[in-house]
Design brief:
The protein has about 325 residues and is mainly alpha-helical. It contains eleven helices and four strands, in the order ααββααααββααααα. Helix content is about 70%, strand content about 5%. Helix 2 packs antiparallel against helix 3, helix 3 crosses helix 9 and helix 4 runs antiparallel to helix 8.
Length: about 325
Amino acid sequence: MTLLFWIGFLAIIGALLALDLGVFHKQDTEPSAREALRWTFVWVLVALTFAGFIYGAYGNHWFGIGLSGKGTVVDSGREAAVQYLTGYLIEYTLSMDNIFVIALIFSFFHVPPRFQHRVLFWGILGAILMRGAMIIAGAALVARFSWIIYVFGAFLIFTALKMLFSTDEKVDPEHSWVIKATKKFFPVTHVFDGHNFFTRLSNGRRAATPLFLALVFIENTDILFAVDSIPAIFAITTDPFIVFTSNIFAIMGLRSLYFALQAMLNRFHLLKYSLVFILAFVGVKMLITYFHIHISALASLGVIALALGLGVAASLWVTRAQASPR
């Protein structure tokens, strides 16, 4: 795959982000639930459309996609598309947990709803850059040390167990090392200045607003979530392009998904167990390759989709049962 192709793909992503903030969400307004659902559908449609490109590109090896110096990396366009969709679903599912934390962060910093989209935009832009670096590092490790897959698998099982026995997520940015470090570099004000991340104090000094602190904390938490999600997708494929694109399209739809779900986050409290199962399943999938047992990407896609669907259905059923009069 040529460097020019990678540059072209990143240029398309940049154009989509520029249209998102510079055209469609230029004004500081709080998206309605209907608008957020519409944009969620748009981003999912874009991701599914790209799956069609993956199918054709890997099936016909456009731009050298799916090939290496040793020959064919992915056997067919169908296999590549299934790997991409599975990776996309894993990242999208694990992002659900990230949404709960984002809601708590905005609540802690008292960020007005009309400014939240801007914070998430820059947060996701930073996430794309950081995840790109982590994916490159992860792909290099897998290529150099094949046993690292078992380390990833054990780590995911440990993460699943930790999530299973953990209490409800609590956010305390005031005592976070990243916020303390930020305050050492910048003066901080608790007063908002529109959608600006920095403002001028009465003494002329430049200070960070609560929006900037929220952005910094969101970036920090995304790194922690990426530590879980990126090893998980390497259980599906080690192709860097599939890993990167599935991650990017999933997190690009995270903003609209957040606004679509924020009003009913408390209705999905059982989704945690779906995430636990998915992490454990992917971890086991990595470990059993030691015994030459391989679960296909198509089977993995079905298991993950079923786990997510059951978690959502169970959450809605329990919530409705609790709300109904007796």
